[in-house]
């Protein structure tokens, strides 16, 4: 065996291990295919969270009681009743976020290079080597006129176009094909460049920023937030809320002191049918008017409705549940005399 063959075989054996393992891990994590797969898995988990009622949703007790023993064991073991707080869901968020960051770092420079410094000149061989290309004939009296015709066609089709002239020098060759360095010639070529929608390349990175913002918001809410309830009745004042901890069908409550007091001044119910009853099925919206007395920031008044939550000092108040009291602000009565006659 020759020395050259031994060298080639040695290099072939060493080639798979020549790339550091850290680089291979980073290449894998920054792969667009891996990101798409992770995103699809997250969609599947989110669908599971929508199809299986979560334990912090009102009515979970009755839903859980209606499940079979096998469903309770399997869903509970897999964490499907609290999937958005499960370790694998948050691990998936972390890996997907890392994939988005690494993929953006890999692909953003080339996308920005295309926008900042587009390729406005090219050789004929380079153009003919593109997957999409065609050759056309233009009839004109000069190259400049032909370039202007092509530019007009680009503009007519919505492309931003420009004509560029590139000059270069070369040496004349002798009959033997050798360059004659004593004879320097110059020549210029015209290039017509047209483009449209170049900023569309930034759309993917806008989506990346939006996804990372959502993931970060979920993580911060998971680490710092908690669920609590406060019962508001007009004329009552409270300075505590009931924090909720869920353990499947068991709901644990304990009081948490607020740094301010809340006064409920009014509660209004907007009906779907003004002539109908005041039951929940005929309700379009609930509006709770509260007044916050804060020793540090003074008095703040706010309206809390179904689609209009109120945020104050990190606490977010929204309508979660209503207990009908059977009372109304105004009542219209139709009275019919017992002994007959016109109704009053």
How far apart, in Å, are the first and last alpha carbons? 119 Å
What's the rounded overall pLDDT mean?
81
What oligomeric state best describes the polypeptide chains here? single chain
Number of strands: 9
Helix content: 25-40%
Q: Give me the secondary-structure category.
A: alpha+beta
Largest sheet: 5 strands, antiparallel
Percentage of β-strand residues: 25-35%
Structure, described:
With 344 residues, this protein is of the alpha+beta class. The chain folds into three domains: 18-116, no CATH class; 124-201, no CATH class; 226-317, no CATH class. The protein has nine helices and nine strands. The chain has helices at residues 3-14, 21-29, 32-51, 60-65, 69-78, 87-116, 124-128, 143-156, 203-224; strands at 160-173, 179-195, 228-229, 237-247, 250-271, 283-294, 298-305, 310-312, 315-317. The chain has a five-stranded antiparallel beta sheet with strand order 3-4-5-6-7, with no helix packed on it. Strands 1-2 form a two-stranded antiparallel sheet. The protein has a two-stranded antiparallel ribbon with strand order 8-9. A hairpin with a 7-residue loop joins strand 3 and strand 4. Helix 3 (32-51) packs across helix 6 and helix 6 (87-116) runs antiparallel to helix 9 (203-224). The longest helix is centred in the N-terminal third of the chain and has 30 residues, at 87-116. The radius of gyration is 36 Å and the shape is elongated. The chain starts with a helix and ends in a 27-residue tail after the last strand. The model has no long low-confidence stretch (mean pLDDT 81).
């Amino acid at each position: 065996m020759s020395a050259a063959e031994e060298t080639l075989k040695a290099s072939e054996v060493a080639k798979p291990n020549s790339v550091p393992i850290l680089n291979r891990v980073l290449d894998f994590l920054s792969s667009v295919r891996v990101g798409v797969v992770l995103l699809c898995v997250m969609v599947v988990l989110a669908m599971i969270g929508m199809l299986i009622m979560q334990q912090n949703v009102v009515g979970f007790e009755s839903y859980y009681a209606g499940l079979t023993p096998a469903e309770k064991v399997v869903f509970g073991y897999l964490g499907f009743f609290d999937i958005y707080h499960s370790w694998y869901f948050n691990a998936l968020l972390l890996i997907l976020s890392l994939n988005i960051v690494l993929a953006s770092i890999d692909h953003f420079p080339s996308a920005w290079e295309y926008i900042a410094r587009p390729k406005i000149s090219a050789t004929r061989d380079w153009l003919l080597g593109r997957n999409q290309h065609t050759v056309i004939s233009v009839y004109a009296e000069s190259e400049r006129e032909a370039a202007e015709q092509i530019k007009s066609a680009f503009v007519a089709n919505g492309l931003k176009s420009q004509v560029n002239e590139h000059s270069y020098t070369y040496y004349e060759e002798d009959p033997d094909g050798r360059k004659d360095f004593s004879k320097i010639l110059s020549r210029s070529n015209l290039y017509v460049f047209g483009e449209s929608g170049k900023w569309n390349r930034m759309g993917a990175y806008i989506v990346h920023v939006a996804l990372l913002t959502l993931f970060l918001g979920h993580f911060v809410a998971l680490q710092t937030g908690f669920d609590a309830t406060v019962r508001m009745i007009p004329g009552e004042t409270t300075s505590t809320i009931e924090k909720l901890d869920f353990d499947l069908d068991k709901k644990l409550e304990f009081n948490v002191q607020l740094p301010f007091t809340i006064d409920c001044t009014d509660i209004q119910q907007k009906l779907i049918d003004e002539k109908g009853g005041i039951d929940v099925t005929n309700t379009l919206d609930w509006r709770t008017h509260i007044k916050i007395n804060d020793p540090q920031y003074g008095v703040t008044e706010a309206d809390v409705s179904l689609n209009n939550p109120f945020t104050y000092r990190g606490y977010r108040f929204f309508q979660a549940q209503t207990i009908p009291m059977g009372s109304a602000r105004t009542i219209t009565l139709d009275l019919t005399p017992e002994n007959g006659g016109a109704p009053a």
